[in-house]
Design brief:
By secondary structure, this protein is of the alpha/beta class. It is 36% helix and 15% strand.
């Protein structure tokens, strides 16, 4: 039997960085997709090739029906990102299929991008950039184009997990006061001097800048009522999940002047986001790029492969969900 034939059969069902593909092909009998496969395509490939491990992503939305039609050979579905709300995890567990994610690798870069959004929204980066790109031929005086100063302002963080704490650490370096709402209060060491708010309603009125740093699956957190509780002139930032936000309410809050500005990396519909945001000068937009550095994307792929290698070797997964 050849060495290739003796290796576990793995399907890389989404486009991944070269380093991840190279490692998958070196360690496994890997079939590598040239596009982000749908759940139906994954099921067909797994049945045809007797796949044992799947490296997948959110574009393959696995329902209970998809899970039920996977062959018995499949032992693990590994997500190279923190989120897994795109699949029916309970259906997989019922079939004895391990589901894993990669919660650690993207923490720093997502926190970096969150700070980029905070700075850009507070200092009117979209408007400044538009002025320069139009040729900037008009002088501005001391009363003109004024932004918000970060130092001394209050940052409200909704979701104080890994990314929320990393954002807090960065914001402290800018002299921001940190408040947070979480399902449970952190230890004093984890809080690092941050003020805990037991309810979202307690946090919002105290937040000059509000950032969401919690996973999807929590319903719509920011409704019209929630935006109304923010102080007039607050800034809203979201690098978490678009599903957490009522975008009609957000647009109304921005148009009315209740919000000074917003920084958004995620949207309810991606990539077909609501283009009304393009009409708002006080919004800084990025196309869901929280983890988009070479080092982080490689780490995410490697974390997924680590989980696959462990499960197919009979060891416990590194990061089960």
């Amino acid at each position: 039997m050849s060495n290739l034939a003796s290796r576990p059969r793995v399907l890389v069902a989404r486009r991944m960085p070269d380093a991840t593909i190279d490692r998958a092909q070196a360690e496994f009998d890997a079939t590598v997709a040239d596009h982000d496969m749908t759940a139906e395509e994954v099921v067909s490939a797994c049945r045809e090739l007797d796949i044992q491990g799947i490296l997948t992503g959110k574009k393959a939305a696995y329902t209970a029906d998809h899970i039920a039609r996977l062959p018995d050979s499949v032992r693990i579905i590994a997500n190279p990102s923190a989120g897994y709300e795109h699949m029916d995890v309970e259906a997989a567990r019922a079939r004895g299929i391990v589901v894993t994610n990669a919660p650690d690798g993207l923490t720093d870069c997502t926190a970096d991008l969150t700070m980029l959004l905070i700075l850009a929204a507070c200092r009117r980066a979209a408007e400044y950039s538009a002025i320069m790109r139009s040729g900037w031929r008009r002088s501005f005086g001391l009363p003109d184009m004024l932004g918000m100063k970060l130092g001394g302002s209050r940052l409200g963080i909704v979701g104080m997990g890994r990314i929320g704490r990393a954002v807090a650490a960065r914001a402290r370096a800018f002299g921001m006061q940190i408040l947070y709402h979480n399902r449970s209060r952190l230890t004093p060491e984890q809080e690092g001097g941050a003020t805990y708010c037991a309810t979202l309603e307690e946090l919002l009125p105290q937040s000059d800048v509000l950032t969401l740093n919690l996973p999807g699956g929590n319903g719509t957190v920011m409704t019209a009522e929630a935006f109304a509780l923010l102080p007039r002139g607050a800034v809203f930032v979201n690098a978490a999940r678009g599903s957490l936000v009522d975008e009609d309410a957000l647009i109304e809050a921005l148009q009315s002047g209740h919000l000074f500005g917003a920084g958004l990396d995620v949207f309810r519909r991606e990539p077909d986001f609501d283009t009304r945001f393009l009409e708002l000068p006080n919004v800084f937009l990025t196309p869901h790029m929280g983890s988009a550095t070479a080092a982080t994307r490689n780490r995410m792929g490697f974390d997924a492969l680590d989980n696959i290698a462990a499960v197919l070797a009979g060891r416990p997964p590194v990061s089960p969900v």
